[in-house]
Amino acid sequence: MKYKRSERLVFMTEYLTRRPNDLIPLTTFVNKFNQAKSSISEDIRILKEVFESEGIGLIQTTAGASGGVTFIPRISKGKAEQIVGHFSEELSKQNRLLPGGYLYMSDLVGNTRVMDEISGLIVTMYEDKKIDTVVTIATKGIPLAHAVARKLNVPVAVIRKDNKITEGSTVSVNYVSGSTRKIETMILAKRTLEDGARVLVVDDFLRAGGSISGVIRLMEEFQAEVVGVSVLVESKDIVDRVFTDYTSIAKVANIDEYNETFDVEPGNCLEFFNKG
Amino acid sequence: MKYKRSERLVFMTEYLTRRPNDLIPLTTFVNKFNQAKSSISEDIRILKEVFESEGIGLIQTTAGASGGVTFIPRISKGKAEQIVGHFSEELSKQNRLLPGGYLYMSDLVGNTRVMDEISGLIVTMYEDKKIDTVVTIATKGIPLAHAVARKLNVPVAVIRKDNKITEGSTVSVNYVSGSTRKIETMILAKRTLEDGARVLVVDDFLRAGGSISGVIRLMEEFQAEVVGVSVLVESKDIVDRVFTDYTSIAKVANIDEYNETFDVEPGNCLEFFNKG
């Protein structure tokens, strides 16, 4: 079969966007379409232009024998503001407030479109950090961790608070929960992480930061390096945290259980995009 | 800016594949590109041909004022066999066997590419079931549930075994675990599911089926209808299950803890693709 340029472009767009951060050898397309390398390179040039001008991401081409093309999802400042705005608006809905001043967020975490959009924002911030694994804590962080890992093309490791026989040998640390001051345990299967792995920690909610401090300690046991921490929502009402280097998509402040009100602000992630 | 057909096709391919099962009005593209409807329709015809001949999925066009175009991910029999083969091969690795005859699968569940491929297989089987929500049980089912929900364009509801304050009001049922014969509890936040919802239940491992029977009972409390059950792996060594209507990607049989051996076979999902 002879493919026209228009047909090749449809195929290549679908192929590349389904494999973000994966080096695709040019020969994949040369062989598939039975075309000269120069025609395929011209196809990729068109793709690259559209991807960059439409803010879909970067198309990186690598020359040489082991060369090829990589799709790197990356969003613009405008798009980041739009995502943060949309998320903050959803988060502001009055009926989220639960007894105890907690926020109901399962619908947001369970919405694959929302997770997908926010993961685009997170990978843009951490794309150059050479991340090997996304680490999260069961259970609400898992959807975001997977959405992020999908775009980074790395695996997800899930830390649990209970020991399951299906994990094999595990490493555990005890930590003090920042909000309840209770001692809790965190467990990760030994074979989930390689020594020296560079990890991005992703979670749904950052209160006092006890659990994330626990994750950082657990990562030390694995000789892994935490190169970033990113959370969906942080509580602004808490001032002292053990660690301060993290990004957030939104902040929740002034939770007033009695009057059933709370405020939502953009998270600190926009600082990254404002820097340019 | 004037877009050429090749550029429009790149944009439209990325736009549609990122929004599976979403009706996109033709006017979205007509306005974006400032082109006549006839040109856009011709673009879509090209896209449709490539998607169908390459087994990417269907492009459905709906006529009329509220008309538009929908990308429906659907894989072929050949692709399904390839996915099942690849997954079975990964699953066969000797070092998965844990004490107690359990299989280590966290690496597969944590691999976003594997989850993405398998979700394509699952949505092809359940695409015509008008699913409103994908339901799973924490924690290992969550990645597959999200991958499936992303392609169906529906939310995910996660059933937990512990009560968390962040869930608000919940509904719970007790059930007897098929393997341990212990009484356990399952909990789902009340506002996660609407009355009468049609749900697809997704999980990682099916042993005796106690937990999935629990899910079915819990769904009755929500007046929800279970229109399908799909699992990553089923244990073939178990003969009597409370329910028999489910699909699986792979089967594990003859687990021999002493000799550290087990067999892997394709799951029953291929029967769907063999029917045509």
Automatic annotation (TrEMBL), chains A, B:
UniProt organism field: Phocicoccus pinnipedialis
Family affiliation: Belongs to the purine/pyrimidine phosphoribosyltransferase family. PurR subfamily.
Residue intervals of the Phosphoribosyltransferase domain: 112-237
InterPro entries tied to this protein: PRTase-like, PRTase_dom, Pur/Pyrimidine_PRTase, PuR_N, PurR_Bsub, WH-like_DNA-bd_sf, WH_DNA-bd_sf
GO BP, sorted A to Z: negative regulation of DNA-templated transcription; negative regulation of purine nucleobase metabolic process
Keywords: DNA-binding, Transcription, Transcription regulation
Top-level taxon: Bacteria
The gene coding this protein: purR
GO MF annotation list: DNA binding
Name of protein: Pur operon repressor
Assembly and oligomerization: Homodimer.
UniProt keyword Transcription present: yes
Bacterial purine repressor N-terminal domain boundaries: 4-73
